[in-house]
Amino acid sequence: MLLGQIFTDNPFLLMALFAGLAASVAGGVIGTYVVTKRIVFISGSIAHAVLGGMGLALYLKRTLHLDWLKPIYGALLFAILAAFLIGWIHLYYRQREDTVIASLWTSGMALGVIFLSLTPGYNVEVLNFLFGNILWTSGQDLFLLLGLDLLIFLVVYFFHRKFLAICFDEKQALLQGLNVKGLYFLLLALVAITVVLLIQVVGVILVIAILSLPAAIANTFTNRFSSIMGFATLFGIAFTLVGISLSFLVNWPPGATIALVTTLGYFVNLLCKKSA
Protein backbone atom coordinates (compact mmCIF):
# COMPACT_ATOMS: atom_id res chain seq x y z
CA MET A 1 0.00 0.00 0.00
CA LEU A 2 1.39 3.41 -0.93
CA LEU A 3 2.16 5.76 1.94
CA GLY A 4 -0.27 8.35 0.60
CA GLN A 5 -3.10 5.83 0.54
CA ILE A 6 -2.55 4.98 4.19
CA PHE A 7 -3.53 8.52 5.15
CA THR A 8 -6.15 9.27 2.48
CA ASP A 9 -8.02 6.04 3.25
CA ASN A 10 -7.96 6.64 7.01
CA PRO A 11 -9.38 10.00 8.17
CA PHE A 12 -8.20 9.41 11.74
CA LEU A 13 -4.63 8.95 10.56
CA LEU A 14 -4.84 12.02 8.36
CA MET A 15 -6.05 14.17 11.25
CA ALA A 16 -3.33 12.65 13.44
CA LEU A 17 -0.74 13.54 10.81
CA PHE A 18 -1.87 17.18 10.74
CA ALA A 19 -1.71 17.31 14.54
CA GLY A 20 1.75 15.75 14.49
CA LEU A 21 2.98 18.27 11.92
CA ALA A 22 1.62 21.20 13.95
CA ALA A 23 3.30 19.91 17.11
CA SER A 24 6.57 19.11 15.30
CA VAL A 25 6.94 22.67 14.03
CA ALA A 26 6.51 24.14 17.51
CA GLY A 27 8.77 21.45 18.97
CA GLY A 28 11.51 22.19 16.45
CA VAL A 29 11.47 25.93 17.18
CA ILE A 30 11.17 25.86 20.98
CA GLY A 31 13.19 22.66 21.33
CA THR A 32 16.17 24.51 19.88
CA TYR A 33 16.00 27.08 22.67
CA VAL A 34 15.53 24.31 25.25
CA VAL A 35 18.59 22.37 24.09
CA THR A 36 20.74 25.50 23.76
CA LYS A 37 19.70 26.86 27.17
CA ARG A 38 20.07 23.36 28.67
CA ILE A 39 16.66 23.35 30.30
CA VAL A 40 15.50 20.00 28.90
CA PHE A 41 14.43 18.61 32.25
CA ILE A 42 12.29 21.67 32.94
CA SER A 43 10.07 20.42 30.13
CA GLY A 44 9.85 17.06 31.88
CA SER A 45 8.79 18.71 35.12
CA ILE A 46 6.17 20.79 33.32
CA ALA A 47 4.89 17.73 31.46
CA HIS A 48 4.32 15.79 34.66
CA ALA A 49 2.97 18.79 36.58
CA VAL A 50 0.18 19.20 34.01
CA LEU A 51 -1.40 15.96 35.19
CA GLY A 52 -2.73 17.97 38.13
CA GLY A 53 -4.38 20.41 35.74
CA MET A 54 -5.88 17.61 33.68
CA GLY A 55 -7.24 15.93 36.78
CA LEU A 56 -8.71 19.19 38.07
CA ALA A 57 -10.34 20.03 34.72
CA LEU A 58 -11.85 16.57 34.43
CA TYR A 59 -13.08 16.68 38.03
CA LEU A 60 -14.80 20.05 37.47
CA LYS A 61 -16.21 18.87 34.15
CA ARG A 62 -17.82 15.78 35.65
CA THR A 63 -18.99 17.20 38.97
CA LEU A 64 -20.19 20.62 37.72
CA HIS A 65 -21.31 19.34 34.30
CA LEU A 66 -19.05 21.74 32.40
CA ASP A 67 -19.08 19.98 29.05
CA TRP A 68 -16.89 22.65 27.42
CA LEU A 69 -14.03 22.10 29.88
CA LYS A 70 -11.40 19.82 28.34
CA PRO A 71 -8.38 18.35 30.15
CA ILE A 72 -6.06 20.20 27.77
CA TYR A 73 -7.30 23.54 29.17
CA GLY A 74 -6.28 22.48 32.66
CA ALA A 75 -3.00 21.17 31.26
CA LEU A 76 -2.24 24.52 29.64
CA LEU A 77 -3.00 26.43 32.86
CA PHE A 78 -0.87 24.15 35.05
CA ALA A 79 1.96 24.09 32.48
CA ILE A 80 2.29 27.87 32.52
CA LEU A 81 1.95 28.02 36.32
CA ALA A 82 4.63 25.35 36.74
CA ALA A 83 6.97 27.14 34.31
CA PHE A 84 6.55 30.45 36.12
CA LEU A 85 7.06 28.83 39.52
CA ILE A 86 10.31 27.23 38.36
CA GLY A 87 11.56 30.53 37.02
CA TRP A 88 10.41 32.54 40.05
CA ILE A 89 12.08 30.30 42.62
CA HIS A 90 15.25 30.05 40.54
CA LEU A 91 15.54 33.82 40.05
CA TYR A 92 14.33 35.18 43.37
CA TYR A 93 15.12 32.48 45.91
CA ARG A 94 18.39 31.24 44.42
CA GLN A 95 17.32 27.63 44.67
CA ARG A 96 18.66 25.00 42.31
CA GLU A 97 16.25 24.32 39.48
CA ASP A 98 16.65 20.56 39.81
CA THR A 99 15.21 20.70 43.34
CA VAL A 100 12.24 22.73 42.13
CA ILE A 101 11.81 20.35 39.21
CA ALA A 102 11.63 17.36 41.55
CA SER A 103 9.04 19.04 43.78
CA LEU A 104 6.82 20.13 40.88
CA TRP A 105 7.17 16.76 39.18
CA THR A 106 5.88 14.89 42.24
CA SER A 107 3.27 17.41 43.42
CA GLY A 108 1.73 17.70 39.95
CA MET A 109 1.44 13.95 39.60
CA ALA A 110 0.10 13.64 43.16
CA LEU A 111 -2.60 16.27 42.56
CA GLY A 112 -3.57 14.57 39.33
CA VAL A 113 -3.96 11.20 41.03
CA ILE A 114 -6.04 12.75 43.85
CA PHE A 115 -8.41 14.59 41.49
CA LEU A 116 -8.79 11.50 39.31
CA SER A 117 -9.65 9.38 42.35
CA LEU A 118 -12.40 11.88 43.21
CA THR A 119 -13.77 12.08 39.67
CA PRO A 120 -16.76 9.86 38.94
CA GLY A 121 -16.69 7.59 35.89
CA TYR A 122 -13.90 6.09 33.81
CA ASN A 123 -11.12 8.58 33.15
CA VAL A 124 -10.05 7.45 29.67
CA GLU A 125 -9.39 11.08 28.61
CA VAL A 126 -6.50 11.45 31.01
CA LEU A 127 -5.13 8.03 30.07
CA ASN A 128 -4.99 9.27 26.49
CA PHE A 129 -3.00 12.30 27.58
CA LEU A 130 -0.61 10.13 29.59
CA PHE A 131 0.27 7.90 26.65
CA GLY A 132 -0.72 10.08 23.70
CA ASN A 133 -4.10 10.52 22.03
CA ILE A 134 -3.13 11.66 18.55
CA LEU A 135 -5.63 9.33 16.84
CA TRP A 136 -8.43 11.04 18.76
CA THR A 137 -7.52 14.49 17.48
CA SER A 138 -10.65 16.40 16.49
CA GLY A 139 -11.08 19.43 14.27
CA GLN A 140 -11.41 21.58 17.39
CA ASP A 141 -8.17 20.13 18.80
CA LEU A 142 -6.39 20.86 15.53
CA PHE A 143 -7.54 24.49 15.53
CA LEU A 144 -6.29 24.81 19.11
CA LEU A 145 -2.91 23.36 18.09
CA LEU A 146 -2.64 25.74 15.14
CA GLY A 147 -3.65 28.68 17.33
CA LEU A 148 -0.92 27.84 19.85
CA ASP A 149 1.54 27.41 16.97
CA LEU A 150 0.67 30.88 15.71
CA LEU A 151 1.13 32.36 19.18
CA ILE A 152 4.57 30.74 19.47
CA PHE A 153 5.65 32.00 16.04
CA LEU A 154 4.56 35.56 16.78
CA VAL A 155 6.43 35.69 20.09
CA VAL A 156 9.56 34.11 18.58
CA TYR A 157 9.43 36.51 15.63
CA PHE A 158 9.50 39.56 17.90
CA PHE A 159 11.83 38.23 20.64
CA HIS A 160 14.18 35.86 18.82
CA ARG A 161 17.34 37.98 19.14
CA LYS A 162 16.65 38.65 22.81
CA PHE A 163 16.07 34.96 23.47
CA LEU A 164 19.41 34.25 21.79
CA ALA A 165 21.10 36.70 24.14
CA ILE A 166 19.81 35.04 27.31
CA CYS A 167 20.45 31.54 25.95
CA PHE A 168 24.14 32.17 25.31
CA ASP A 169 25.19 34.78 27.88
CA GLU A 170 22.80 36.18 30.50
CA LYS A 171 25.43 38.50 31.99
CA GLN A 172 26.16 40.08 28.63
CA ALA A 173 22.41 40.43 28.04
CA LEU A 174 22.13 42.33 31.34
CA LEU A 175 24.94 44.64 30.28
CA GLN A 176 23.02 45.32 27.07
CA GLY A 177 20.07 46.51 29.13
CA LEU A 178 17.77 43.56 28.39
CA ASN A 179 15.11 42.46 30.86
CA VAL A 180 16.65 39.05 31.43
CA LYS A 181 14.14 37.96 34.07
CA GLY A 182 11.14 38.88 31.93
CA LEU A 183 12.62 37.15 28.88
CA TYR A 184 13.36 34.05 30.94
CA PHE A 185 9.74 33.89 32.11
CA LEU A 186 8.51 34.41 28.56
CA LEU A 187 10.73 31.63 27.24
CA LEU A 188 9.52 29.26 29.95
CA ALA A 189 5.92 30.12 29.03
CA LEU A 190 6.66 29.15 25.41
CA VAL A 191 8.21 25.90 26.63
CA ALA A 192 5.05 25.23 28.66
CA ILE A 193 2.79 25.83 25.64
CA THR A 194 4.96 23.60 23.46
CA VAL A 195 4.90 20.83 26.05
CA VAL A 196 1.10 20.89 25.97
CA LEU A 197 1.20 20.76 22.17
CA LEU A 198 3.48 17.73 22.21
CA ILE A 199 1.44 16.00 24.93
CA GLN A 200 -1.37 15.86 22.36
CA VAL A 201 0.93 13.73 20.19
CA VAL A 202 2.98 11.46 22.46
CA GLY A 203 1.58 11.97 25.95
CA VAL A 204 3.08 13.14 29.23
CA ILE A 205 5.52 10.28 29.64
CA LEU A 206 7.33 10.62 26.30
CA VAL A 207 7.26 14.38 25.73
CA ILE A 208 10.92 15.04 26.66
CA ALA A 209 12.24 12.97 23.78
CA ILE A 210 10.11 14.71 21.16
CA LEU A 211 10.99 18.18 22.46
CA SER A 212 14.74 17.75 22.76
CA LEU A 213 16.01 15.03 20.41
CA PRO A 214 15.20 16.57 16.99
CA ALA A 215 17.02 19.76 18.05
CA ALA A 216 19.92 17.73 19.45
CA ILE A 217 20.24 15.85 16.14
CA ALA A 218 20.03 19.10 14.16
CA ASN A 219 22.82 20.59 16.27
CA THR A 220 25.21 17.92 15.02
CA PHE A 221 24.75 19.15 11.44
CA THR A 222 25.06 22.90 11.93
CA ASN A 223 25.90 25.52 14.54
CA ARG A 224 23.74 28.22 12.97
CA PHE A 225 20.76 28.77 15.26
CA SER A 226 18.14 29.37 12.57
CA SER A 227 19.38 26.30 10.67
CA ILE A 228 19.09 24.18 13.81
CA MET A 229 15.47 25.29 14.12
CA GLY A 230 14.78 24.39 10.50
CA PHE A 231 16.48 21.00 10.67
CA ALA A 232 14.84 20.20 14.02
CA THR A 233 11.44 20.94 12.54
CA LEU A 234 12.13 18.76 9.50
CA PHE A 235 13.40 15.91 11.69
CA GLY A 236 10.33 16.20 13.88
CA ILE A 237 8.03 16.05 10.86
CA ALA A 238 9.91 13.07 9.43
CA PHE A 239 9.83 11.15 12.72
CA THR A 240 6.12 11.88 13.09
CA LEU A 241 5.36 10.69 9.55
CA VAL A 242 7.39 7.51 9.93
CA GLY A 243 6.04 6.85 13.43
CA ILE A 244 2.39 7.19 12.46
CA SER A 245 2.87 5.04 9.34
CA LEU A 246 4.74 2.35 11.27
CA SER A 247 2.17 2.32 14.06
CA PHE A 248 -0.58 1.71 11.49
CA LEU A 249 1.32 -1.09 9.73
CA VAL A 250 2.33 -3.02 12.87
CA ASN A 251 -0.62 -1.96 15.08
CA TRP A 252 1.46 -0.18 17.71
CA PRO A 253 0.39 2.85 19.81
CA PRO A 254 1.19 5.89 17.63
CA GLY A 255 2.57 8.14 20.37
CA ALA A 256 4.99 5.52 21.66
CA THR A 257 5.98 4.61 18.10
CA ILE A 258 6.79 8.23 17.24
CA ALA A 259 8.89 8.53 20.40
CA LEU A 260 10.67 5.24 19.62
CA VAL A 261 11.44 6.30 16.04
CA THR A 262 12.77 9.65 17.33
CA THR A 263 15.00 7.94 19.89
CA LEU A 264 16.32 5.46 17.32
CA GLY A 265 17.03 8.35 14.96
CA TYR A 266 19.03 10.07 17.70
CA PHE A 267 21.17 7.00 18.43
CA VAL A 268 21.71 6.23 14.74
CA ASN A 269 22.89 9.80 14.24
CA LEU A 270 25.27 9.47 17.20
CA LEU A 271 26.77 6.28 15.79
CA CYS A 272 27.13 7.77 12.32
CA LYS A 273 28.84 10.90 13.67
CA LYS A 274 31.17 8.83 15.83
CA SER A 275 32.23 6.55 12.97
CA ALA A 276 32.67 9.46 10.53
Write the layout of secondary structure elements.
Layout: H1 3-8, H2 11-37, H3 40-63, H4 71-92, H5 97-118, H6 124-131, H7 139-168, H8 170-175, H9 180-202, H10 207-219, H11 225-250, H12 254-275
Helix pairs in contact: 2-7, 2-9, 2-10, 2-11, 3-4, 3-5, 3-9, 3-10, 4-5, 4-9, 7-9, 9-10, 10-11, 10-12, 11-12
Amino- and carboxy-terminal Cα gap:
36 Å
General shape: globular
* Main beta-sheet annotation: none
Computed over alpha carbons, the radius of gyration is 19 Å
Low-confidence stretches: none
Helix content: over 70%
Sketch the topology as an H/E string, one letter per element. HHHHHHHHHHHH
Summed up, the helix count is 12
Secondary structure: number of strands: 0
Mean pLDDT: 85
Strand content: under 5%
Class derived from helix and strand content: mainly alpha
